[in-house]
Design brief:
By secondary structure, the protein is of the alpha/beta class. The protein is built from 18 helices and 31 strands. The strands form ten sheets. It has a seven-stranded mixed beta sheet, with helices on both faces. Helix 6 crosses helix 7. It starts with a helix and ends in a 7-residue tail after the last helix. Bound molecules: coenzyme A and adenosine monophosphate (AMP). Coenzyme A binds next to strand 9 and helix 12. One of its GO terms (cellular component) is intracellular organelle lumen. Belongs to the ATP-dependent AMP-binding enzyme family.
């Protein structure tokens, strides 16, 4: 079948506002207007100004009203607890209405912020939808972040409430969330008025009288009373959520997602990019704490009338590397979306794909990968094993949906390993040099997107408009700076080569080395430090920290290095996967004092490098090589 991609992309280029107005027909609006885009509003304009809608209505109520009452909306499959549950659209709506009533009883309403700190349980999805129903703005914090990170988000979002589960479960350990929440509230200047805690049997939380409430009990009471909570109309430009993501400092960026444009973009993507029909089962094996989880575990599948899967487990070890195939076969999943690292983990355990043959995957149609570079080797292995298209696609927390991909719904384009394919409608992707000049085809440079960004992308940062300009708009006037570097080839295919800032990607998780350096620098014995991302066969990248100790410190280095590893785990969280701290006498620098992190990374990754012309003392690079050798980094596989 020939692809309709070229004509679709051209129809967007010819009439961008008409294109998105037509796409908006998939959404039920409370009121609309003739204006699709207001260029004068916000840093670069706003989509669907003065249109009114409600995301929860579009995800649940309208499907119940139109006959999807009994269709599963959400399948919970938790190999880590051995539990499974199915929620029909009717049942999920009832639960969400009950939780909305509980939130309203706590005085939460339109525009109030609510932090959600939960593992992969159905109540996390209910909490997000309940906020959307009453016009509250949710901010989900990933469970692998520590109390300090939670405190930073509490201070920035100033939530009225926190919705949490009593614990999360990782292989071999139960993580009690409540002590982390209590510590975060203690550290934060802003104090939320209440905590609504879902008790889990693996570790029940003790509740502080007056502030904390048993969310499950309150919800059950609201449901028994048959409480009704209508969907609150909000403006399309009102925020649906804030999602914090790593920036170049310890202060994360609060990415704002608006309500209307987000729905329009996600609905378009389900049909045209993912090639999914309403009623089918779509599974994003991610976490609700990440953007992939927001968009493709919660909102997009439900907007599109699909069944979504909430999976509480890991690709390996819960119980084995066949769990993805078991879930696909058991729940008739047609498409899976995950990060390449999950496939690297599966391949390591089951290189010949023996576990795949145990399951009937006949209805499985496509695998979508994003979040980090999809290495051609892993993509080829997945293609050989699964015999379905393996679609790499590129996007960011900021965009909220795919920027460059292979639109299966418009007809698959030829796949080039190593490239996520072509820009989606809405994205005019270009490659510029550092001075902002267009680069010739096939030349590596800064990947930028011509403004305005399409519906679904961030309109600004929460409470930080100046930072929005500084981080994304100022360097290349008229363009959004992605902070990725890449190449566009003669067929218009993009390849993503690296980040241009200090962000690294560890097991598909976006982390800032700058934030880790800030933590290391707080250690009493550390004079200066540098954290780099070194390549890792499983996780893609791993953080590796170098520290120079203050003069006069004569404790054993191993002892200090252990403390530093513990410090990052305590301050940022286990998700940082910071396990390598190396003491060195000096850091390599330019004569103007800039640490040569790039050269250190090249040494650690066995890449050839040119001696930087401006290096202060070349001998320091030999010292770094020796230190890496001593710590076993240079002979890692
Ligand atoms: N709550 C608490 N701790 C968490 C957590 C959570 N929600 N998620 C991860 N952690 C912990 C892990 O237990 C681990 O702790 P440890 O240092 O004590 O072992 C640490 O954070 C690092 O986690 P991770 O980097 O994920 O490594 P892992 O060894 O647990 O798992 C993979 C490796 C590849 C199996 C796993 O990273 C994975 O499934 N990745 C998929 C990627 C993904 O979902 N990306 C989202 C974007 S699409
Ligand atoms: P996040 O905001 O966590 O989604 O991370 C976004 C970053 O992950 C991007 O800026 C890229 O650096 C990287 N990334 C995401 N998807 C891809 C992909 N398909 N190929 C290469 N890098 C990717």
């Amino acid at each position: 079948m020939s692809s309709r991609y070229a004509e679709t992309y051209k129809s967007w280029q010819d009439d961008p506002f008409g294109f998105w107005k037509a796409a908006a027909a998939k959404i039920d609006w409370i009121s609309t207007s003739d204006q699709v885009f207001d260029p004068a509003d916000g840093p670069y304009g706003r989509w669907f100004p003065d249109w009114e809608c409600n995301t929860c209505y579009n995800c649940l109520d309208r499907h119940v009203e139109r006959g999807r009452t009994g269709q599963p909306a959400l399948i919970y499959d938790s190999p880590i607890t051995g539990k499974k549950a199915v929620y029909s659209y009717r049942k999920l709506l009832d639960k969400v209405v009950a939780l909305s009533a509980v939130l309203q009883d706590q005085g939460i309403g339109k525009g109030d912020r609510v932090i959600i700190y939960m593992p992969m349980v159905p109540e996390a999805v209910m909490a997000m939808l309940a906020c959307a129903r009453i016009g509250a703005i949710h901010s989900v914090v990933f469970g692998g972040f520590a109390a300090h990170e939670l405190a930073t988000r509490i201070n920035d979002a100033t939530p009225k409430a926190i919705i949490a589960a009593s614990c999360g479960i990782e292989p071999g350990r139960v993580i009690a969330y409540k002590p982390l929440i209590d510590a975060a509230i203690e550290q934060a200047e802003h104090k939320p008025e209440c905590c609504l805690v879902f008790q889990r049997e693996q570790s029940e939380a003790s509740l502080i009288e007056g502030r904390d409430h048993d969310a499950g009990a309150l919800m059950a009471a609201a449901e028994a009373e048959g409480r009704e909570v209508p969907c609150v109309p909000v403006k399309a430009t009102d925020p649906l959520y804030i999602l914090y993501t790593s920036g170049t400092t310890g202060q994360p960026k609060g990415v704002v997602r608006d309500t209307g444009g987000h729905m329009v973009a996600l609905a378009w993507s389900m049909a045209n990019l993912y090639d999914i029909q309403p009623g089918e089962v779509f599974w994003a094996a991610s976490d609700v704490g990440w953007v992939v989880g927001h968009s493709y575990i919660v909102y997009a599948p439900l907007l599109h009338g699909c069944t979504t899967v909430v999976f509480e487990g890991k690709p390996v070890g819960t119980p084995d590397a066949g769990v993805f195939w078991r879930v696909i076969a058991e729940h008739s999943v047609v498409s899976l979306f995950t990060a390449p690292t999950a496939f690297r983990a599966i391949r390591k355990e089951d290189p010949e794909g023996k576990l795949i043959s145990k399951y009937d995957l006949s209805q499985f149609r496509a695998l979508f990968l994003a979040g980090e570079r999809a290495d051609p080797d892993t993509v080829q292995w997945a293609a050989d094993q699964l015999r379905v298209p393996i679609v790499d696609h590129w996007w960011q927390t900021e965009s909220g949906w795919c920027m460059v991909g292979n639109p299966l719904g418009l007809g698959k384009l030829p796949i080039k390993p190593g490239s996520p394919t072509v820009p989606m409608p809405g994205y005019d992707v270009q490659i510029l040099d550092d001075a902002g000049h267009p680069l010739p085809q096939g030349t590596l440079g800064n990947i930028v997107v011509k403004l305005p960004l399409p519906p679904g992308c961030l309109p600004t940062l929460w409470n930080a408009e100046k930072r929005f300009f500084d981080a994304y708009l100022n360097d290349f006037p008229g363009y959004y700076k992605t902070s990725d570097a890449g190449i566009i080839d003669a067929d218009g295919y993009l390849s993503i080569m690296s980040r241009t800032d200090d962000i690294i990607n560890v097991a598909g998780h976006r982390l800032s080395t700058g934030a880790m350096e800030e933590v290391l620098a707080t250690h009493k014995d550390v004079a200066e430090c540098a954290v780099i991302g070194i390549s890792d066969q499983l996780k893609g990248q791993l953080p590796c920290g170098f520290v120079v100790l203050k003069s006069g410190v004569n404790r054993p280095h191993e002892e200090i290095e252990k403390e530093l590893v513990g410090l990052v785990r305590n301050q940022i969280g286990p998700v940082a996967a910071f396990k390598i701290a190396i003491t060195v006498d000096r850091l390599p620098k330019t004569r103007s004092g800039k640490i040569l992190r790039g050269t250190m990374r090249q040494i650690a990754d066995h890449e050839s490098y040119k001696m930087p012309a401006t290096i202060d003392d070349p001998a320091i690079l030999d010292e770094i090589t020796q230190a890496l050798e001593l710590h076993g980094i240079l002979n890692r596989v």
